[in-house]
């Protein structure tokens, strides 16, 4: 009896969630849109801020992985629960699990998005937000090689974008950015939405270091896709430096950066965690806190550095400038 | 369905606990990253990278015509030239070249591992010794090779000392690397001088001239190919290049991208050794081998060259992609098939062992593109691995 679930089962859980709620963790849309409460949007230009749900989900990923591992233990370990039944129970368990996630954690991630909102507004951008209708891009399904499931998500999101007359998206994480920029046009007929990461849009000089978190030196961690595929390493540093942050370079940086391990956190959390711990040591050696610009890096490295005890504090660029 | 991913995951989790392996890989990767940064800072290396990428685009689309041309050129050089479609065919050809009972010395080549050469020869009663130090360590440990250039990467010095102690019957100080290397040198030289057959791989073979090019730092390849009376080259069809000059470029590129600032030896071998020093009459052998044979193994390559994994055949096996891979960093050679490990090794596993073997391994790829960043021939390695993820059986 194998100790672990097959990849179809693991991805299947996320797919089931995606179909039900529009995101792979099965969070309800209102929760994902909570950051926008009380904020004003203006969608008249056809430009929208697209969160892809990644920052919001990062607060819950820990609980989700824990649930998956428990499911794995109960089904694959031969306790006798059928998979379908177990999945059903998992669905029920998820909502109670999520409600136990520290509010502080959820608020922290929501704050990151609110901060981007503020920066954009301050630089004169007008944009809309899809609210609780915003759908996940499906990037995970693509990355896991589930192409038709990805296509399903891509078409669903595209329909939504077309219905709302979206012409341009300002994105905030490297994964959603790259998938929309480079993969959507291959999977969706005539996908012509312009996609820009916020670092391409915002002027580096337009932000300053915010609150006490911004003290000291930051070891810059380049998110893989941000550095290698989007080519935004210079812009990222420029942004941090012009805001008044002091930065240090770890041994592996820019295009030679070392992954946080996050992309396989759902299917092989222990391998993912070991990689994250290795990166934490590298960042720790560079000195100071660790700076990231990606929700996956933020949660995966944050968790691993905490586990290590001696690891650096991990913060997102959007937590320390404002 | 899914059980083989589950099995792979179990092994990947277990490997995380293998402390000596992790220490070995960690040390190797750190040394590599320092050397690699120095090498790629050179403009001549970057120029060569552009050239080799171009050459590899050509060889990929002309693979069939090139290996056929090479077989002809080799034959006209007086070399026994053979094409082997499968592993079994390769072994049966080799079985006719190597007599049972002959003493065989080998240099390092992943193609040997791929076809199970040492096991095959040993099963026929041949005494076989690995002359590359890393392979010799692997031979003593019974492991599979960890990495393309450094097969014993996962074995830290402490374990090498233990293996040597068992083999040589005396103790070794793990920090006395010099002493360990000297012991291997003395032992292997004895075997090379006594050997009947020297088996080497080839980094590249020229189609036009039929010249075999090898690159190395230890000096064992030169000895293995010249001292025994028979020189057998076992290589694969993707290693054929239009000209000898292209081959030398490949050899240099492989060496640079493996992190060396210059190769110690590059050898060009076209015919068995001979001399014309007495009245210009060619007499064979002189000081080198008397006979030379070349076996070009296909084992799935030609078919792959026509399908979605074609890009893999541009690989020059420098191993750079493995040594920057975060998954390889924590799981080492466990992430791989029988012969090929980590990064492009996952795709080589698909070609040489089957897509069904490689699919469960593919899901551990992060898609971080660290491999793509370093590959000298510009292979979209993580793209190929993502394709493997779509091939659920
Ligand atoms: S795929 Fe590229 S980097 Fe990897 S071994 Fe082959 S040539 Fe080297």
From TrEMBL, chain B:
Coiled coil: none annotated. The keyword Signal does not apply. GO terms for molecular function: 4 iron, 4 sulfur cluster binding; oxidoreductase activity. Residues 306-336, 354-384 form the 4Fe-4S ferredoxin-type domain. One of its GO terms (biological process) is lactate metabolic process. Keywords: 4Fe-4S, Electron transport, Iron, Iron-sulfur, Metal-binding, Repeat, Transport. This is 4Fe-4S ferredoxin-type domain-containing protein. It comes from Candidatus Marsarchaeota G2 archaeon ECH_B_2.
């Amino acid at each position: 009896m194998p100790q672990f679930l097959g990849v179809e089962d693991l991805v299947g859980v996320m797919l089931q969630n995606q179909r039900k709620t529009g995101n792979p963790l099965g969070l309800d849309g209102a929760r994902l849109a909570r950051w926008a409460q009380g904020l004003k949007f203006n969608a008249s230009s056809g430009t929208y801020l697209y969160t892809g749900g990644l920052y919001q989900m990062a607060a819950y990923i820990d609980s989700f992985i824990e649930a998956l591992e428990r499911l794995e233990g109960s089904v694959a370990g031969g306790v006798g629960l059928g998979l379908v039944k177990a999945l059903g129970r998992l669905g029920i368990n998820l909502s109670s699990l999520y409600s136990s996630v520290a509010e502080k954690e959820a608020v922290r991630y929501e704050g990151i998005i609110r901060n981007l909102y503020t920066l954009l507004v301050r630089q004169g951008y007008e944009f809309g937000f899809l609210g609780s209708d915003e759908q996940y891009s499906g990037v995970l399904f693509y990355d896991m090689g589930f192409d038709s499931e990805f296509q399903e998500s891509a078409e669903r999101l595209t329909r939504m974008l077309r219905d709302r007359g979206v012409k341009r998206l300002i994105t905030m994480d490297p994964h959603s950015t790259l998938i929309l920029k480079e993969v959507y046009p291959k999977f969706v007929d005539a996908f012509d939405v312009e996609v820009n990461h916020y670092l391409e849009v915002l002027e580096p000089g337009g932000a300053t270091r915010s609150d006490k978190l911004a003290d000291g030196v930051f070891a810059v961690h380049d998110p893989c896709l941000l550095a290698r595929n989007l080519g935004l390493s210079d812009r990222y540093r420029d942004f941090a430096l012009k805001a008044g942050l002091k930065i240090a370079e770890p041994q592996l940086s820019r295009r030679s950066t070392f992954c946080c391990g996050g992309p396989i956190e759902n299917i092989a959390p222990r391998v993912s965690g070991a990689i994250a711990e290795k990166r934490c040591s590298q960042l720790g050696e560079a000195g100071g806190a660790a700076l990231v610009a990606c929700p996956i890096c933020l949660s995966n490295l944050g968790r691993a550095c905490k586990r290590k005890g001696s690891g650096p504090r991990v913060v997102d660029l959007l937590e320390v400038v404002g | 369905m899914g059980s083989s991913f589950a099995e792979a995951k179990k092994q990947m989790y277990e490997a995380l606990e293998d402390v000596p392996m992790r220490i070995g890989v960690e040390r190797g990767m750190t040394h590599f990253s320092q050397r690699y940064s120095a090498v790629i800072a050179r403009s001549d290396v970057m120029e060569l990278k552009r050239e080799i990428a171009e050459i590899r685009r050509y060889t990929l689309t002309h693979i069939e015509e090139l290996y056929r041309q090479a077989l002809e050129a080799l034959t006209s050089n007086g070399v026994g030239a053979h094409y082997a479609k499968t592993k079994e065919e390769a072994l049966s050809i080799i079985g006719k070249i190597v007599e049972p009972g002959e003493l065989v010395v080998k240099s390092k080549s992943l193609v040997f591992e791929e076809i199970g050469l040492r096991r095959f020869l040993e099963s026929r009663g041949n005494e076989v010794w690995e002359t590359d130090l890393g392979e010799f360590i692997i031979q003593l440990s019974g492991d599979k090779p960890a990495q393309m250039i450094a097969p014993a990467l996962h074995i830290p010095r402490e374990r090498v000392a233990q293996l040597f102690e068992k083999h040589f019957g005396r103790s070794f100080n793990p920090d006395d690397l010099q002493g360990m290397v000297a012991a291997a040198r003395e032992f292997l030289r004895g075997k090379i001088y006594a050997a009947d057959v020297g088996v080497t791989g080839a980094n590249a073979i020229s189609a036009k001239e039929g010249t075999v090019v090898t690159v190395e730092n230890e000096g064992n390849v030169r000895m293995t190919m010249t001292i025994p009376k028979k020189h057998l080259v076992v290589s694969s069809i993707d290693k054929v290049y239009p000209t000898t000059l292209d081959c030398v470029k490949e050899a240099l590129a492989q060496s640079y991208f493996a992190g060396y600032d210059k190769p110690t030896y590059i050898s060009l071998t076209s015919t068995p050794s001979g001399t014309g020093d007495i009245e210009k009459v060619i007499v064979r052998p002189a000081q080198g081998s008397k006979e030379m044979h070349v076996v070009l193994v296909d084992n799935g390559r030609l078919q792959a060259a026509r399908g979605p994994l074609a890009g893999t055949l541009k690989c020059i096996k420098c191993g750079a992609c493995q040594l920057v891979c975060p998954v390889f960093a924590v799981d080492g050679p466990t992430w791989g098939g029988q012969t090929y490990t980590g990064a492009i090794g996952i795709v080589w596993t698909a070609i040489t062992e089957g897509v069904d073997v490689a699919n469960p391994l593919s899901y551990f790829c992060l898609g971080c593109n660290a491999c793509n960043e370093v590959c000298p021939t510009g292979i979209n390695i993580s793209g190929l691995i993502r394709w493997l993820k779509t091939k659920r059986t």
